[in-house]
Design brief:
The protein is mainly alpha-helical. The protein has six helices and three strands, in the order H-E-H-H-H-E-H-E-H. Helix 2 packs across helix 4 and helix 5 packs across helix 6. The radius of gyration is 17 Å and the shape is globular.
Length: about 150
Amino acid sequence: MPGIEAALARYREAYVPSAAFPTPTSLLPINVVVAETPGEAAARAMPQAVQMVRLRTGAPLTAQLTIEEARAYRWSPREEAMRESVAAQWLIGTPHEVAARLRGRLEALGLDEAMIVPAGGAYQGEAFNEPAGRAETLRLLAEAVAE
């Protein structure tokens, strides 16, 4: 995450203290997908990955795909490289694995806070407005972080 490291360093170097905020504070939003298995977490992350690639390539944005539709998506080599780059910034995996990586990222970047963005998609038949993957991500991560 070299771009984020550089931005945080610049912010901290240029920070002007005030009475209300004597020291700089930092918050970073982090896309997270947590499931019981790495394969399930990767599957739940796929629909959002398709959307991010579409957004970054200027492709038409549509309703988010289901997990089944995202699995069938045919990636061009350019899109595949972009998907890998996008997903590398996310925390995707099992509860304890993601909790450890989250703690590591907070420490490595000197962050005061992380805003967890649950990015888990939905299987066909699950509610799109309340994807089970998002709720499961938050529940599993909260349990792992609390241990």
